[in-house]
Structures are given as C-alpha cells and as structure tokens.
Amino acid sequence: MPSTTTERKTKTCDPSWHWHEPHRKPIYQVAFNQADASQADVFAVVGARWVSIYRMPATESPPHAETAGTAAEKNGRKRKDKAAAAMGRLEPLQTYADDDTEESFYCVVWGADPSNGNAWLAVAGKRRQIRLIDCHRGVALRTMRGHGGAVHEVRFVPHAQASLLLSASEDESVRLWCCSTAYCLAIFAGQQGHRDAVLSLDVRPDAAYLATAGVDGTVRWHAAHCMHTACAHCICAACRCACGAWETRRCRGA
Predict the structure, then answer these.
(1) Which of 235, 241, 193, 240 is nearest to 218 (CA)?
(2) Which of 16, 35, 48, 198 has its CA 20 to 30 A from that of 127?
(3) CA–CA separation, 231 and 248 (whole Å)
C-alpha cells in the first residue's frame, strides 16, 4: 500500500517587529525582568558598552483566521507599516553607557535590592568586571573585580537572604559575590574545577545546586552547602547582611 504519511511543513514565523540599537554593534544578550512580575514586559539588552532598557508595547489580539492567499496579500502590503507602528509603541526607559570605552558587555541579569525592592541589573563582559546598576536611580552602584578573564554569564542566587551573585569567567572560575559590599565570598575553581573558560552557569530554583559548563566539555555541580559555608562564616556589620564573609573560600566541584 502507498504510504499515507503527510509531510508537515515547518512554519516560518516572521518577527512582529524589530529595531536597531543606535550603537550598531553586536547585541550579546537580552533579558526580560523576571525578578518583578509587575514589570514582566520590561527587558534589557547589552552590546558594546551600552545597556538599554525598554518596555514592550501592549499585546495585540490575534487576527481572525484567514486563507493563506489573503493573509499573504495583506502581509505584503502591511508588514512595513505594522513594524513601524509597533516600534513606535516600544517605550525606551533607560540607557546606561559605561565609562570604559573599551568595555563590551556579554551578559545581563535582573535582580532586586533586598532593602527597598528597586530593580537591579548586573552586567559584565570583556573587561573582567561586573557592574551593578540601580535602575531606579540610573547609576552604577558597585563594581566587582577579581576575575582574570572576560565574564561570560552572571546569575543572582534565588531566595538569598541578601543579594548574592554568581559569575562565570574565561579564567576557568566561578565566583560568588555579595552585592551589598562587592566582596567575593567564594571561588569555585582548582583541581576539581573547569580546565578552560566557563561559559554558562545556573542555579536550581530552590538554590540547592549550582551547575556550570564550559569549553572543557564538562558540566560540574556544586551543592548549596558550599555556598552556605562561605556566606555564613561570619557576619559583616558594615553592610548588615547575612552574607558578608570577610574570608574568601575556595570550593571544589562535584
């Protein structure tokens, strides 16, 4: 019997709209604000030394069903007008330009100030440093330095009593930072660590595990007790947070 299998064509989806950043440089990352549900339509993009924050236009109702011919004809006439109209509704909220003209940001992540709930952005990249930006005031609050290579990814630790930040770097290490003081609390590296640049990291939603991956082709796991040990070693009265360890700990991977 002849085969009755019907081949399904992969649908090609055109973007609803697009725009170019003024600097016209590569954009390495885009991130929606997942730290504040009330600001879920706000997103940030990073490229060169620039950080831009936008609010998306209101979601439109989906169009009524049409025949393929009718839809193609309408799309041909209206695509440009629709893109221009949508771009006009995209709301620029804030732009940050780093003082270092040689900087090129590779990564961005949203967080929140534990003392007042103000939105934070952590950005990092080529120049081996992490900038913590207060979006409410539009200024860089702190700079975290210590990595010996470019920073490829940053992540806030979920459910931390104070704002803890993790960073993955070309220098083969992952570092844990206290955002209130810019102190490095722990370094995940050494004999059991990565043997090449660390490209990616993530934390389980309950903060029980940290996973890292890199150029050496390995994924490494770190149990939460390693972070807890570093953070609970002592109390930093200066920043009044539960994470302010003065002693930097070096932690082995799983």
Answers:
(1) 193
(2) 35
(3) 9
Distance CA 173, CA 112 (A): 25
Collect all residues with Cβ–Cβ distance below 8 Å to 81 and sequence separation of at least 6.
none
Distances (CA, A) of 178 to 94, 113, 185: 25, 12, 7
CATH number for 124? 2.130.10.10
Q: Are 17 and 87 in contact (CB under 8 A)?
A: yes
CA dihedral for 108, 139, 179, 169, sign (positive or negative): positive
- The per-residue pLDDT string of the chain (254 residues; one tens digit each, 9 = 90 and over) reads 555 566 677 878 877 777 889 899 999 999 999 999 999 999 999 999 999 999 998 765 444 444 445 555 555 555 555 544 555 578 999 999 999 999 999 999 999 998 888 999 999 999 999 999 999 988 999 999 999 999 999 999 987 766 899 999 999 999 999 999 999 999 998 877 899 999 999 999 888 899 999 999 999 988 876 665 555 443 332 333 333 332 344 555 54
Q: How many residues does the chain have?
A: 254
Count up the domains in the chain and report the number.
1
Q: Which two tokens stand for residue 150?
A: 């470019």
For the whole model, what pTM was predicted?
0.78
* Assigned domain for 222 exists: yes
Domain that holds residue 164: 29-60+91-251
The answer to whether residues 90 and 83 touch, using CB atoms and an 8 Å cutoff, is no
